[in-house]
Amino acid sequence: MATPHTTSRTRPTKVKKHARTQKRKRDDVDAEKLQDAVSQIDLNSTHTSFSDLPLSAPTVEGLKSAHFSTLTDIQAKAIPRALQGSDILGAAKTGSGKTLAFVVPVLENLYRAQCVGPDAGLGAMIISPTRELAIQIFEVLRKVGGKGHLFAAGLVIGGKGLQEERDALSRMNIVVCTPGRILQHLSQTSTFNVDNLRMLVLDEADRIMDMGFKKDVDAIVEYLPPDRQTLLFSATQTKRVSDLSRLALKEPEYISVHEAASAATPKTLQQNYVVTPLPEKLDTLWSFIQSSKKSKILIFFSSGKQVRFVYQSFRHMQPGIPLLHLLGRQKQTARLEITQKFSNAKHSCLFATDVVARGLDFPAVDWVIQVDCPEDADTYIHRVGRTARYEKEGRAVLFLDPSEEEGMLSRLEQKRVPIERINVRDKKQMSIKNQMQSMCFKDPSLKYLGQKAFTSYVRSLHVQKDKEVFKIENYPLEEFASSLGLPGAPRIKYLKADPTEVKELKNRSRMETALSESESEASEGEEGEVSTKKNGVRTKYDRMFERQNQDILADHYSKMVRNNDDDELDLNKLDGEQIGDDALFDVKRRIPADQALSSDDEDVEQLSGAIIEPDQLGPRSINIPGTSAPLILDSKRREKLLKSKKKVLKLKDRGNKLVFDDDGNAHQLYELENEDDFRARGAADEQRERFLLSERERVEEADLADKALAKEKRREKREKRKERERAEEDGGKADEDGETGEDLMANFAADAEAGEDGDLEQERPKTKRPKKWFEQDVVEPEEEEREIGTFDEMEAAAARLLG
Ligand SMILES: Nc1ncnc2c1ncn2[C@@H]1O[C@H](COP(=O)(O)OP(=O)(O)OP(=O)(O)O)[C@@H](O)[C@H]1O
Questions:
Q1: For 303-307, 575-579, 731-735, 780-784, which range has the lowest pLDDT when averaged over its residues?
Q2: Ligand 1, atom 22: closest residue by C-alpha
Q3: Is the pLDDT confidence value at 203 over 80?
Q4: Residue 600: which pLDDT band, with cuts at 50, 70 and 90?
Q5: How far is the CA of 95 from the centre of ligand 1 (A)?
Q6: Confidence band, pLDDT 50/70/90 cuts, at residue 502
Q7: How many domains does the chain have?
Q8: What is this structure's pTM?
Q9: Which atom of ligand 1 is found nearest the CA of 204?
Q10: pLDDT in tens, 153-177
Q11: Residue 217 and residue 280 in one domain
Q12: CA 24, CA 120: separation in Å to the nearest integer?
């Protein structure tokens, strides 16, 4: 089987062409024979193996090489009827082999109709709700049909250029696709002809028929010829007459092989639930992961934001098991890589949304953990169905908040799901609340993810249809926010979101979402809730800046914040920055710029259904003693600045110099006197002259007094020196009495200094020893710095240095 979307065909050589023609002829003969055999299949007899059925040689070959020999229950019932051309509604437990139950009839029916080659056109369309599932179905198709069939089959799921897909589509006989993308081609690709379509298959039919895909499916069916065969398969099948009429089914055969079974889930699946209050869910999850490191675990959350937040935080905490995360809004290549990694892993933990809840056949999953309660029992069945597939064993644990327990258990009971309560061992239960808080405190991007996770979770509770299970008023949301490491629960405004619209939004492709985001931005702007760039590219930073609760602070921080507009303006001045009309906004904008998102995040998702109200608190700020206003700690640069005492001094107020009068009253240093009094004393110029004259006289008098004092001091000194010289002459040789040359020289220098300069002899101020990071035992600086005046002194100093 050729795959036009991946392989480009080369021009066949003459020999190859001849071989093909010969094979076609043989196939024509076979097809006729097979048609007879198929019409004679006894639908009442039990078929146990593929060899019991009239299948073409290429299909038999393909089944054999893939090691499929015995039929599963659903295959034994559905394949013979489908071969005979009936419309089918097939329901069977998860992992029971429904894919082959439609893949084999597709190959066989097209083969018998000789719907092969580009001229035959599109013969079968297989629709899957997710890209991952479409890829998996395509792989099964290739495994079974790729051995000997000549069909051209392809995948149309987006993620490639439209033109590339268009070219491939024109040559396809079988297409595996997602609803949105195939509808796009049906409506936009004029060369895409579906007039020859014989078979339409919907895998996970109930999902495809539900609200999220309703419009797309109805539109697709409009394009298809009415005289086609339609096969619907799911583990939780729709039987609604309205659905069947929408698809124009003709006397469909309802095949539900496990309808009489006591359980709607595989026998080999052990199912339990634990009652864990919402604020303890992450503790329980962490404890579980810690005790199951040698396992392959699939963990479900209700939203992509939850997945990202828990994945990022747990990754920081190094759980000792490889972590992966998968959500609808990741790029297709990343999603593929992650599914591949998880499939191949022996021990790994995949955090995911319901994008992997249906149909995916990961080998050997040990545990399925549902951290967030599923929206209904069907979703529960599909999620747990990722383990215990095709007779293998598996375990599933559902986390329930006490308020969800009763409602959810009754829903599961109605759907025949056997589930038992278990308790977490106290010994094993760990608390990660402190770690979460410290991580969010240190990393604003994580806190941001946490806030989004919180709002998306609460919003999901709000839009849940089953209000008996999800009673939003019963959840301890404040404690939940704290368990995520958030300083407080972001306040949420609920828009009147219709659950149908939310689902539809979820199902839209990335591109469509991107388009719709700009629309929603515009509407948000109209409401005055958010101001956004309407044109141009918005980065994750833009979105971070735009977020409305970015300044939610920890209690202890909020105490430090003076919530005063004036203060904030002062701070802007203090920072030397221009203040615009939106100064406050600018200050806030600086917060994340220095603290870029470090995660390997993709785009930041758009809130829908909820808008976070702006908090009254300003950005993180701190009071410096002695400053008039708190300093906003909005960047690492500023925090660093605060560590420098010198810089802090600069920021401090200078203080006021006051003078006190004789009565002890304080006055400003310069006080302007009464103007009238001033004028009464005469013209300003005259006053100035008088003032200068009096000051000059005062200075001259002071000068004379100083000179007289200096003269007196010099005289006293001279007297002292003479006395000393006399004493020296009288009292013998000083050297012999123990006085050193250095002392002498010091005295002499001091005297000379006083004499020459005529200055008062003062005690020489001690030179301050420079502060250093290391100690040095060198000559005393006082000694070095002494001025050396005469030649004799120089000689003595030089001798000292040399000696
Ligand atoms: N006849 C068979 N013999 C052996 N293995 C089979 C047979 N049919 C299917 N399987 C295996 O069983 C597993 C489950 O099959 P499949 O994915 O088709 O289940 P499903 O019923 O579609 O599950 P879900 O409801 O989750 O979509 C696959 O690994 C497949 O290879």
A1: 575-579
A2: 98
A3: yes
A4: very low
A5: 5
A6: low
A7: 4
A8: 0.65
A9: 27
A10: 999 998 778 888 998 998 999 999 9
A11: no
A12: 13
Using most ligand atoms within 8 A of CB, pick from 59, 71, 96, 135 the residue to mutate for ligand 1.
96
Return the residue whose CA atom lies nearest to atom 6 of ligand 1.
97
Cα–Cα dist 158/509, whole Å: 8
164-168, 235-239, 747-751, range with the lowest pLDDT: 747-751
Q: From the CB of residue 183, how many other CB atoms can be counted at a distance below 10 Å? A: 21
pLDDT at 747: 34
Residue 76 covered by a domain: yes
Residue 789 is assigned to a structural domain of this protein: no
> Does residue 45 lie in a domain region?
yes
The candidate with the shortest Cα–Cα distance to 201, out of 137, 136, 117, is 137
Pair (293, 144) in one structural domain = no
Q: Which CATH number do you get for residue 123?
A: 3.40.50.300
- What pLDDT does residue 602 have? 33
Per-residue DSSP letter, 262? S
Please compute the mean of the pLDDT values over residues 394-399 and round it to a whole number.
97
Residue 794 within any structural domain of the chain: no
Give yes or no: residues 566 and 606 share one domain: no
* Spatial distance between the Cα atoms of 202 and 230, rounded to a whole number of angstroms: 8
Q: Is the pLDDT of residue 511 over 90?
A: no
Residue to mutate (ligand 1; options 99, 127, 128, 130; most atoms within 8 A of CB): 99
User: Same domain for 198 and 332?
Assistant: no
- Please tell me whether residues 73 and 217 are part of one structural domain: yes
Cα-based angle 524, 527, 530 (whole degrees, multiple of 5): 50
Q: Is the domain of 65 the same as that of 191?
A: yes
Q: Are residues 395 and 497 in the same domain?
A: no
Q: Is 258 left (phi over 0), alpha (psi -120 to 50) or beta?
A: alpha
Atom 23 of ligand 1, residue of closest alpha carbon: 95
- Determine the distance separating the centroid of ligand 1 and the alpha carbon of 280, expressed in angstroms: 36
Q: Which amino acid is at 649?
A: L
Nearest protein CA to atom 15 of ligand 1, as residue: 97
Considering only CA atoms, which of 481, 461, 477 is closest in space to residue 469? 461
Boundary (domain end) residue, out of 431, 457, 483: 457
Distance from Cα 430 to the centre of ligand 1, integer Å: 38
Cβ(312)–Cβ(449) below 8 Å: yes
Ligand 1 site residues (CB inside 6 A) read: 68, 70-72, 75, 92, 94-100, 235, 359, 361, 385, 389-390
Q: Which of 34-43, 234-243, 308-317 has the lowest mean pLDDT?
A: 234-243
Residues 290 and 170 in one domain: no
234 CA: nearest ligand 1 atom: 25
Domain hosting 563: range is 491-531+548-592
Rounded to the nearest whole angstrom, what is the distance from the C-alpha of residue 653 to the centroid of ligand 1?
A: 77
Which of the listed residues 576, 592, 608 is the one where a domain comes to its end?
A: 592
Nearest CA to ligand 1 atom 1: 71
pLDDT of the residue at 751: 37
Q: What is the whole-number distance in angstroms between the Cα of residue 464 and the centre of ligand 1?
A: 31
